Amino acid sequence: MPTPWTFGFSRSRAAPVQFLLAFPSPTHKFTGAFGKGSAPGERSSITALATAVLHRPPQRQLHHALIPHGRSGRSSVSGVVATVFGATGFLGRYVVNHLGRMGSQVIIPYRCDTYDYMHLRPMGDLGQIIFLEWNARNKDSIRRAVEHSNVVINLVGRDWETKNFDFEDVFVKIPQAIAQVSKEAGVEKLIHISHLNADIKSTSRYLRNKAVGEKEVRNAFPEAIIIKPSDIFGREDRYLNYFANMRCFGGIPLVSLGKKTVKQPVYVVDVSKGIVNAVKEPDARGKTFAFVGPNRYLLFDLVQYVFAMSHRPFLPYPLPRFAYQWIARLFEISPFEPWTTRDKVERVHITDMTLPHLPGLEDLGIQATPLELKAIEVLRRHRTYRWLSSEVDEVKPAKTVNF
């Protein structure tokens, strides 16, 4: 009697398809197994087996994109098929780049114009970066993006609210939907990016919703990995560039001159490497990580260093919080991207938490990069031509604090 073998295949990076292949044993003739010479009992048993396989409940199949092979690098297969929500943002491009360089297949759901994600296409080997249009409020659209992945990374974020998406939508409802659908789809790892200062009692609406989002993700997907980075700096960031652009106002407005606020910024490459290492770390499931830089600075000293590195005059002046909020309100009503908002004024002047009980970058094998080593990558563009090529060593490092 022929020995039936069942193979699980998938269309190239698409939905798995089952094929039932029945092969005769070496002692049977081909015609005896499948042809006219086969006995009625044999044909009926094959038919019954095929019917049972085709009508059994659908199962999540293991396809070749999940089987690691090769010598590492972008042309190998790491075994990771990752859906990265928010990949077109500041942090997303670094995460996609690291995933692509290790041979992962990356699915990028997008809502933007096609020209806004084209820079991500060459970050992986041919056919390994897949773009998928999605609707953030439609669970079926989310399910289509995650159903063939074993890793889902949520980087969705927004610095300011819009008429279509407020902070509750971005930081609570969308992450909750992603977590629920990922759990239903059998995703192995979900990584959710929050914020170091996320607190339900925070004066910032941004940080309050971040805290609620963490709770909802944990409830929907208990094994989720939650990462809480501090303010992130790097090329094209909205942190060091934000301070450097303050010179357009003839001075640097800071609440209490920034001498009551302590910051501990972290380098974007360290954060992206930490996310990828969390994907590879089997013991990371269900943990919460705090990603921070190696040094803490007073906000005053940090901004002073930004202007020293930019070779621009540093002219700080104290501005009462209510006056700063009123000015920020004027930027909010602008039809263009706001330079600042009332909520950002609050976030900038909140001292970064210290969470020694949580694992950090070191627990994932990453040595945090000091601000002084990488700030020039961000700030060189703010220099005048005279100082464009001046040495970094000429600038005195920012003072650090231990509280």
From TrEMBL:
Keywords: Acetylation, Electron transport, FAD, Flavoprotein, Mitochondrion, Respiratory chain, Transit peptide, Transport
The organism's place on the tree of life at top rank: Eukaryota
UniProt domain NAD-dependent epimerase/dehydratase: residue ranges: 83-285
InterPro entries reported in the protein's UniProt record: ComplexI_NDUFA9_subunit (IPR051207), Epimerase_deHydtase (IPR001509), NAD(P)-bd_dom_sf (IPR036291)
Pfam families on file: Epimerase
GO cellular component: mitochondrial matrix
Record's subcellular location: Mitochondrion matrix
Cofactor: FAD
Main localization category: mitochondrion
One Gene Ontology term of the molecular function aspect: protein-containing complex binding
Complexes and interactors: Complex I is composed of 45 different subunits. This a component of the hydrophobic protein fraction. Interacts with BLOC1S1. Interacts with SLC2A4. Interacts with CLOCK. Interacts with RAB5IF.
Family of the protein in this entry: Belongs to the complex I NDUFA9 subunit family.
Protein name per its UniProtKB record: NADH dehydrogenase [ubiquinone] 1 alpha subcomplex subunit 9, mitochondrial
Organism of provenance: Myotis myotis
